[in-house]
C-alpha cells in the first residue's frame, strides 16, 4: 500500500525549498522503504535546488542518510525490516563492463528504486542522487542500503553516505596515502576536512590543511589531524605553493588533494606535489570551469592526476569499517555534525553552508 509522508522538495530552479506531502509507492520486487532517522544537508542538495546538476524538477532533496528498513519487496534478500542502514548512491549492478572487470567502484549502471515517489497530485519526483531522503520515509533499491552497527549515532553515520566518504576516500582510496607520507588538502569544508582526517588515519606524518578561513584551519589542526595549517586569505597562489614546499623540505607533498574544484586550487594542488606525486581532485567543478596547465608541466612533473568519484568507495566494505572506527574513537565522524535541525530549517542551513558557518547541519526526524 502507498504511504503519504512529509518531505522537502525543490520545485523550480533557485526557489526556496518547500515541505510538502510525498507519496511513497508500494515497493517493487527489489525495493525497500526506509524510515529516515537523520539526513545531512550537503552542498549537492543546494546544487540540485539551484539547477546546477540537472533540470529534472521537482527534486526530492536529501541523500546523506541513516535510517531503519521498514518494508521490503518480495525479492529482497540484502536487508530485512529492522536493519539500521546508511544509504548509498553507488549500488553496484554486478553486470556492466566495469563490474565484469572487477572494478565495481566504477560501476556504470548503479541501481535505484524501480518506482517513482510523487507529489499528492501524482507529479513524479526526481530523488537527489537516486535517494531523496529529506523525508520521513524514502524508497530505494535494496543495494542502496548498507547495514552498519545500530549503536552508532544516525546523525553521524549518515554522513558517510556522501561528503565525508568522498573526502575520506579521496585520501585513503584514490590517493592511496601511505604511512610516513606527506599530504596537502586545499579547501576545508566537510569534504576537505574528511580528507585531512583520512590522511591522518592512514598514517601520513605531515598533513597540511589550506583554506582562506582561519576557523577552518584551526579546526583542521585541533580536531581533524592536520599537523600544519596555511591560512591563504591574503596570499597569492604562488605564495601558498611555496609555503607547502617549505613544510616539506622544499620538495612538495607525496599527495595533494583539491577539495574545492576551481582553477586556483587545482593549480596549487598540481604544483604543491613532489615530482611523481599523486594529485586527487575531489572538489566538483561547475560546468563552465576549465583547467589551464602548460602541457610541458603536465608531462615533466610525472606522477598521477585522479578524480575521486565518491572517494572510490565500496559502501559494503567502507561504511561498516568507518562506523566502527568512529565508535572506537579513531575517526572523528561525530565532529562533522555542527547542528541538528528540523525539516523546516533547510533553507537556513543552506545559508549557513554558503557562509562557511557549519560543516554539516543534520536534519533529524
UniProtKB/TrEMBL annotation:
Annotated GO CC locations: cytosol
A single GO molecular function term of this UniProt record: S-(hydroxymethyl)glutathione dehydrogenase [NAD(P)+] activity
SMART domains, per the entry: PKS_ER (SM00829)
Keywords: Metal-binding, NAD, Oxidoreductase, Zinc
UniProt-listed SUPFAM superfamilies: GroES-like (SSF50129), NAD(P)-binding Rossmann-fold domains (SSF51735)
PROSITE patterns hit by this protein: ADH_ZINC
Cofactor(s) listed in the protein's UniProt record: Zn(2+)
Keyword Oxidoreductase: yes
Stored Pfam families: ADH_N, ADH_zinc_N
Entry annotated with the keyword Cytoplasm: no
Domain Enoyl reductase (ER): 14-363
GO terms for biological process, alphabetical: formaldehyde catabolic process
Top EC class of this enzyme: oxidoreductase
Annotated EC: 1.1.1.306
Family note: Belongs to the zinc-containing alcohol dehydrogenase family.
UniProt protein name: S-(Hydroxymethyl)mycothiol dehydrogenase
Organism name: Corynebacterium lujinxingii
Phylogenetic classification of the source organism: Bacteria, Bacillati, Actinomycetota, Actinomycetes, Mycobacteriales
Amino acid at each position: 500500500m502507498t504511504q503519504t509522508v512529509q518531505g522537502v522538495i525543490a520545485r523550480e530552479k533557485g526557489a526556496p525549498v518547500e515541505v510538502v506531502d510525498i507519496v511513497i509507492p508500494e515497493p517493487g520486487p527489489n525495493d525497500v522503504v526506509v524510515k529516515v532517522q537523520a539526513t545531512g544537508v550537503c552542498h549537492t542538495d543546494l546544487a540540485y535546488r539551484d539547477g546546477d546538476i540537472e533540470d529534472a524538477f521537482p527534486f526530492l532533496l536529501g541523500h546523506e542518510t541513516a535510517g531503519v528498513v521498514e518494508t521490503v519487496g518480495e525479492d529482497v534478500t540484502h536487508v530485512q525490516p529492522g536493519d539500521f542502514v546508511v544509504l548509498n548512491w553507488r549500488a553496484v549492478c554486478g553486470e556492466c563492463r566495469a563490474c565484469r572487470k572487477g572494478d565495481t567502484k566504477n560501476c556504470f549502471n548503479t541501481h535505484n528504486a524501480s518506482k517513482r515517489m510523487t507529489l499528492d497530485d501524482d507529479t513524479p519526483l526526481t530523488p537527489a542522487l537516486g535517494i531523496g531522503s529529506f523525508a520521513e520515509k524514502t524508497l530505494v533499491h535494496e543495494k542502496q542500503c548498507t547495514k552498519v552497527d545500530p549503536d552508532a549515532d544516525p546523525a553521524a553515520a549518515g554522513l558517510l553516505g556522501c561528503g565525508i566518504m568522498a573526502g575520506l576516500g579521496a585520501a585513503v582510496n584514490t590517493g592511496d596515502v601511505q604511512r610516513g607520507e606527506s599530504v596537502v588538502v586545499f579547501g576545508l569544508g566537510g569534504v576537505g576536512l574528511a580528507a585531512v582526517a583520512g590522511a591522518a588515519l592512514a598514517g601520513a606524518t605531515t598533513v597540511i590543511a589550506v583554506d582562506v578561513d582561519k576557523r577552518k584551519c584551526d579546526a583542521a589542526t585541533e580536531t581533524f589531524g592536520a599537523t600544519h595549517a596555511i591560512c591563504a586569505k591574503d596570499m597569492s597562489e604562488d605564495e601558498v605553493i611555496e609555503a607547502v614546499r617549505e613544510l616539506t623540505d622544499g620538495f612538495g607533498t607525496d599527495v595533494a588533494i583539491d577539495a574545492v574544484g576551481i582553477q586556483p586550487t587545482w593549480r596549487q594542488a598540481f604544483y604543491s606535489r613532489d615530482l611523481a606525486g599523486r594529485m586527487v581532485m575531489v572538489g566538483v567543478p561547475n560546468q563552465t570551469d576549465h583547467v589551464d596547465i602548460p602541457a610541458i608541466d603536465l608531462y615533466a612533473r610525472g606522477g598521477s592526476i585522479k578524480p575521486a568519484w565518491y572517494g572510490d568507495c565500496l559502501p559494503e566494505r567502507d561504511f561498516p569499517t568507518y562506523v566502527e572506527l568512529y565508535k572506537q574513537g579513531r575517526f572523528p565522524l561525530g565532529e562533522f555534525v555542527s547542528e541538528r535541525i528540523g525539516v523546516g530549517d533547510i533553507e537556513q542551513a543552506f545559508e549557513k553552508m554558503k557562509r562557511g558557518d557549519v560543516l554539516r547541519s543534520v536534519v533529524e526526524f
